[in-house]
Write a structure and sequence with these properties.
The complex is a heterodimer of chains A (468) and B (216).
Chain A (H helix, E strand, L loop, with lengths): L6 H7 L2 E4 L5 E4 L2 E4 L5 H9 L10 E3 L17 H17 L2 E2 L10 H8 L7 E4 L13 E4 L2 H10 L1 E4 L3 E8 L8 H12 L7 E6 L1 H4 L3 H9 L8 E3 L4 H7 L8 H11 L12 E6 L6 E3 L7 E3 L13 H14 L14 E4 L1 H4 L2 H11 L9 E4 L4 H9 L2 H8 L2 E2 L20 E4 L14 E4 L2 H10 L10
Parallel strand pairs in A: 3-4, 3-6, 4-5, 6-7, 9-10, 9-12, 10-11, 15-16, 15-18, 16-17, 18-19
Antiparallel strand pairs in A: 1-2, 2-8, 13-14
Helix pairs in contact in A: 2-5, 6-8, 13-15, 13-16
Chain B lengths: L5 E9 L6 H4 L19 H4 L22 E4 L11 H9 L3 E4 L4 H8 L4 E4 L2 H13 L4 E5 L4 E5 L5 E6 L4 H9 L3 H6 L2 H14 L2 H8 L4
Parallel strand pairs in B: 1-2, 2-3, 3-4
Antiparallel strand pairs in B: 1-5, 5-6, 6-7
Classes of the chains: A alpha/beta (468), B alpha/beta (216).
The structure holds iron/sulfur cluster (SF4).
The site of iron/sulfur cluster has 13 residues of chain A, from helix 12.
Chain lengths: 468, 216
């Protein structure tokens, strides 16, 4: 390695416990987030082998994917969902892991509660059996999703075997236009580099537009690193990061805090550090984005049109576009702003934080959801919900005709009762527009919370800049 | 984990790019708390229609490929979620080897933990294997992990040829020996403990912040 290191290099080298032949390293894992879907088999594996959890204090668990977002008092209706959530609670009790259960105000989407509690800190290695663990990279932590076998491995050993990733830097300079958000930035990036563009790499987001973002916006960007194929996303920790973390329940306090901050200041990439790959975007050139297909790279500015497969020179691309349009029920060449929708979903680990709800409410205030539309707002956590209610955002949404829900993953992946019917079309602030993601046959258009409100009000995809 | 040494079997062609894990195993099958029995949900929305009837022309439903042990497919296979239910479903169906121009990282890792060999080959090689598999001739392949080769035993009597592939030596070893990763790691207990002692010294906030709340 050269004498100049990237943020990724620094975190990686400071966590290597052992090296194996071929470059695979045994990496120490500082924090482990656990949810109900990807953990039961891991705990079962531990029990079967008579193993214990090495560091219960380094783990935090929460049920989020399966939980109902209405009528919580009645418990979980679906017996399989209930069993999975109960299993998580039983496992956590047995192995001594802290778990925010459904009745806990702190319960929420796993990637929202980690930062919220100050469990996520700069310079750490953080894992979770969930691909959107990349979210935590916004704090300058190396955070990545793992499978269930690896969840078991971390529980038993607090380490993982990993091969080093390559460094990629995406620089976004300049100022975002009005109505253009962090979501539009990351969608534009994925549109540019593709869903395999980051494979094998950790993406560091840099540039003045990124530095100017709040922590919540940075989380939105890092969240979708996985949609760009990257192992993780990273943003250098700075004052914005420290201000966000200071005073959080699990963040260090007093003299230890000072010591931590001094260390965190040494983490940003050295000038002259080497990147295997670089991309640049001009913030001013990014328009509000909306996806039209069934892969997050199938995205366009809202001012654009549905692409024509016939115009694709590469046969594999042509086939992919044809297939996507067929599934999405869209005609080539149609204006995106003419696409009528049935549902609006505001929430998820991409856009379910307080700033997202504030921005959405500001636009919804004094307006009405179109009569043809079912629109729901699902806060990312109980604390986000509480904060929003303190600010009166719930009333704004309800008056405008949105439903106001309990926290959870909800219609982001439709494992609970919130789902689309076949051919229903949804304007969604989540991160995946895969076939069937929001319900079998359901059609998802990804966009920012502001764009989702604009769609809810107008009844079709709509340029938020025209609502001012 | 079952060892992987050599595998001879039918290769099924799935000519699709960006096959995501939602497609491999849809969410309704993620509610299980077991690793087994997921084969029934493999590619569910492609194998079965809304009434639950088999879709006859989906590749894995065709008689020729229904016992396939190898899948030949497009780039970025396994993108999307980290769900290990995807390799569990493939394994339960009988697939032990997947050949593609590229794989998504987490899925790639998950394969090795389950005795599945993901083989990355240049697109031309994948195209050639795909074409062979589609023709229905040359559909039986032998994958030799030790030698790192794929050999086609052509059913029409022709020479299927041999292709070599690259694999990370650590992953190769693990598959060949069918290692229990955790047992392997626990042997390095002294190194892990040593690391922890050093970190406690240098980065105390990693160890104190956690407990200040009093651990609910
Ligand atoms: S909100 Fe969606 S993407 Fe995020 S953790 Fe939940 S299911 Fe996954």
């Amino acid at each position: 390695m050269s004498e100049f290191c990237t943020l990724f290099d620094k975190i990686w080298t400071s966590h290597v416990v052992d090296r194996s032949k071929g470059g695979t390293c045994l990496l120490y894992i500082d924090r482990h987030l656990v949810h109900e879907v990807t953990s039961p088999q891991a705990f079962e594996g531990l029990r079967d082998a008579g193993r214990t959890v090495r560091r219960a204090d380094a783990a935090l668990a929460v049920p989020d994917h399966n939980v109902p977002t209405t009528d919580r008092a009645e418990g979980i209706d679906d017996p399989e969902s209930r069993l999975q959530v109960d299993t998580l609670m039983r496992n956590c009790e047995e192995f001594g892991i802290r778990c925010f259960t459904m009745g806990d105000l702190r319960q929420g989407i796993v990637h929202i509660i980690g930062p919220e509690q100050g469990f996520t800190l700069p310079g750490m290695t953080i894992v979770c059996g969930d691909s959107h663990t990349s979210t935590h990279g916004a704090f300058g932590a190396l955070a990545f999703g793992i499978g269930t076998s690896e969840v078991e491995h971390v529980l038993a050993t607090q380490t993982l075997f990993q091969t080093p990733a390559k460094n990629m830097r995406i620089t976004v300079d300049g100022e975002l236009g009005p109505g253009v958000t962090a979501k539009d930035v990351i969608l534009a990036i994925i549109g540019k580099i593709g869903t395999a563009g980051g494979t094998g790499h950790v993406i560091e987001y840099a540039g003045s537009a990124i530095a100017g973002m709040s922590m919540e916006e940075r989380m939105t960007v890092c969240n979708m690193s996985i949609e760009a194929g990257a192992r993780a996303g990273l943003i250098a920790p700075d004052k914005t990061t420290f201000d966000y973390l200071s005073g959080r329940p699990l963040a260090p306090k007093g003299a230890v805090w000072e010591q931590a901050v001094a260390h965190w200041r040494t983490l940003p990439s050295d000038e002259g550090a080497h990147y295997h790959c670089e991309e640049n975007l001009d913030a001013a050139g990014i328009a509000p984005q909306v996806s039209w297909g069934t892969s997050p790279e199938q995205v366009a500015p809202i001012t654009g049109t549905v692409p024509d497969p016939a115009a694709q020179s590469n046969p594999a691309h042509r086939e992919a576009v044809e297939r996507a349009l067929d599934y999405m029920g869209l005609a080539p060449g149609a204006r995106l702003t003419e696409v009528a929708i049935d549902h609006v979903f505001i929430g998820s680990c991409t856009n379910g934080r307080i700033e997202d709800l504030r921005a959405a409410a500001a636009l919804a205030e004094g307006r009405k959801v179109a009569a043809t539309i079912t629109a729901m707002v699902v806060p990312g956590s109980g604390l986000v919900k509480e904060q929003a209610e303190e600010e009166g955002l719930d009333r704004v949404f309800l008056e405008a005709g949105f439903q106001w829900h309990e926290p959870g993953c909800s219609m982001c992946l439709a494992m609970n009762a919130d789902k689309l019917e076949p051919k229903e079309r949804c304007a969604s602030t989540s991160n995946r527009n895969f076939e069937g993601r929001q319900g079998r046959g359901g059609r998802t258009h990804l966009m920012s919370p502001q764009m989702a409100v604009a769609a809810a009000v107008s009844g079709h995809l709509c340029d938020v800049r025209e609502m001012a | 984990m079952e060892k992987f040494t050599t595998l001879t079997g039918i290769a099924a062609p799935l000519a699709m790019e960006n096959v995501d894990t939602d497609m491999i195993i849809p969410k309704q099958f993620l509610k299980t708390i077991k690793r087994t029995g997921l084969g029934a949900g493999l590619f569910y929305e492609h194998r079965f229609d809304e009434q639950g009837e088999e879709i006859a022309d989906f590749v894995l439903n065709r008689a020729l490929y229904n016992g396939a042990k190898i899948l030949v497919t497009g780039g970025n296979f396994g993108c999307g979620s980290s769900r290990e239910h995807a390799p569990w479903a493939l394994l339960d169906f009988g697939i032990r080897c997947i050949i593609a121009p590229s794989f998504a990282d987490i899925f790639h890792n998950n394969c090795f933990k389950n005795g599945i060999l993901p083989v990355t080959l240049p697109r031309e090689d994948v195209d050639r294997l795909m074409e062979g598999a589609e023709r229905g001739a040359n559909t039986t392949l032998t994958v030799d992990l030790e030698a790192q080769t794929i050999t086609g035993a052509s059913s029409d009597g022709g020479d299927g040829g041999s292709i070599s592939f690259h694999i990370d030596p650590f992953n190769k070893q693990c598959l060949l020996e069918g290692h229990d990763d955790i047992a392997l790691t626990l042997k390095r207990e002294d190194k892990i403990a040593g690391f922890e002692a050093g970190q406690k010294q240098d980065q105390p906030w990693q160890w104190t912040g956690q407990t200040q709340e009093g651990g609910t």
